[in-house]
Specification:
162 residues, mainly beta, four-stranded antiparallel beta sheet
């Protein structure tokens, strides 16, 4: 049985991560991000600037902390990863992210010294800054977030946010 991460074949996840890392580490690389899905090559939006973190939800959607553009973007799985949506606004150099089992996205908003949540109910095609919730602020340069297996959208603030 092939290995997977949140239901997404490991080859899809690892190839996207490798592509993003190669672009970050190779200063002469082309500005467009290239990802390899199931043997096919897909060139993603060239508008990414220093994508520093990715997370994948249970449906295969890929979320990117687009640090250089101070944005969080979703690469939608439906339709072959050709749609890229910007989620919310008000981010300042986000550098970390995680997705819980309910599809909520948690963001280490580094430049704003905050940890934020984009509820799953606001992700489907929404670009509404009121959907972005600040879970905590005053952090000293947060660069990563994580959720455990029990994190769900029923808790307004996960007990593990510190």
């Amino acid at each position: 049985m092939p290995r997977s991460f949140l239901g997404v074949p490991a080859t899809r996840v690892s190839c996207l991560l490798l592509s993003l890392l190669a672009t970050l580490l190779l200063p002469g690389a082309a500005p467009a991000q290239t990802a390899y899905f199931s043997g096919a090559v897909a060139t993603l939006d060239s508008g990414f600037s220093r994508p520093l973190a990715v997370a994948v939800d249970g449906n295969g959607n890929v979320f990117v902390a687009d640090t250089g553009n101070s944005a969080v973007k979703e690469i939608v799985a439906a339709g072959g990863y050709t749609t890229i949506d910007t989620l919310g606004s008000g981010f300042n150099g986000p550098e970390g992210m995680a997705v819980d089992g309910s599809g909520n996205v948690y963001v280490a908003d580094t430049g704003n010294s905050a940890v934020k949540k984009i509820p799953a109910s606001c992700i489907a095609g929404a670009n509404n800054s009121s959907c972005v919730l600040t879970l905590g602020s005053g952090f000293n340069i947060p660069v990563g977030v994580a959720v455990d297996g029990s994190a769900t959208s029923t808790s307004p603030i996960p007990a593990t946010v510190r």
